[in-house]
Amino acid sequence: MRYGIFSDVHSNLEALEAVLACFKKERIQSFVCLGDIVGYGPNPNEVVQRIIGLKKIQITAGNHDYAVSGLKELTWFNDFAARSIIWTKRHLKEENKNFLMRLPRLIDGSQFTLTHGSPRDPIDEYLLTPRQYLDNLEYFRTPICFIGHTHVPSIFYSDSLGMIQHKPLGDGEIFKCDSQAKTIVNVGSVGQPRDGDPRAACVIYDSEKFEIKCLRSSYDIHAVQDKMKQASLPLFLIERLSYGR
To answer: Which of 16, 66, 147, 188 is most solvent-facing, going by the fewest CB within 10 Å?
Structure first.
C-alpha cells in the first residue's frame, strides 16, 4: 500500500490542492492527515471539507484544531497564533468545528502509529532532539510513527551501530526504514513550512518496500497571502509564507 501522509495544512487551500495533485500523480491509495488542519490561513471551512471528502483517510487532531473547537486554551499560543485562532473560531462553521472536536489524539494502527506532536504527548510536544526520540520509544509499539507539529520534514532512527540519528528529509529523498527498529518520521507542513523551503511538504510511505519519500510542491503563495490580507490576519503570518520560516 502507498500512503500519502501530510500534516499542518493550516487553512491553506492552495497548498493542500498542490499536495493532493502530487498524490494523484503518485497514484496514492490511502491518505493520512496528522492534524492542524486549521489555524493561520484564510480557508478553514474549505480545507476541512476537502479533507473530509477524501476517501480512505485517517486523521488525528492538532493543537490548533483543538483550540478552535474549544478543547485547548489560547494561553498556550503566541499572539500571532492566538489572533488567527480567534479569527478561525469566528468563521468556522459549526459542523466543521464539531468534526475537529471529535478527532483522536493518536491512532495506534497495525503498521504504524499516527499523531500530531509525539506519542508521549500527542497534541503539544515538539519532537526535536535525539533525547526526545529515545524518551518516546516506549509510547508506541509499531516500527514507524508519523508526526507533524514542527513544520520541518525529518527523521529519527537508530543506525546499525546503535547511534541515534536525526536528519532532514529533502525533496525527492527516499529513506529505507528498518523493520526491526523504531523510526519516527516528521512529515513537515503543507500550509506553513518552516525549514527554509516555502513549498508544501508531504511524505509518501510504501508499506511493501518499507520506504519513505519526501516530496515538495509549489503553489500560488501570493494568492493565499492576498486572502490573508483581506481577512486582516497578522502580517507576520502572511510574510513568512514567502520564506518558509
So the answer is: 66
Whether residue 225 lies inside any domain: the answer is yes
> Residue 234 corresponds to which cell in the numbers above?
497578522
Write out the residue range of the structural domain in which residue 172 sits: 2-240
Tell me the C-alpha distance between 236 and 232, whole Å.
11
153-173 pLDDT, tens per residue?
999 998 877 889 999 999 999
CATH number of the domain within which 229 lies: 3.60.21.10
CA–CA gap between residue 216 and residue 197 (Å, rounded): 9
- Separation of alpha carbons 43 and 191, rounded Å: 11
Number of structural domains the chain divides into: 1
Sequence-ordered list of residues with C-beta below 8 angstroms from that of 115, at least 6 positions apart, any chain? 34, 35, 60, 105, 106, 107, 122, 145, 146, 147
So what's the pLDDT on residue 161? 77
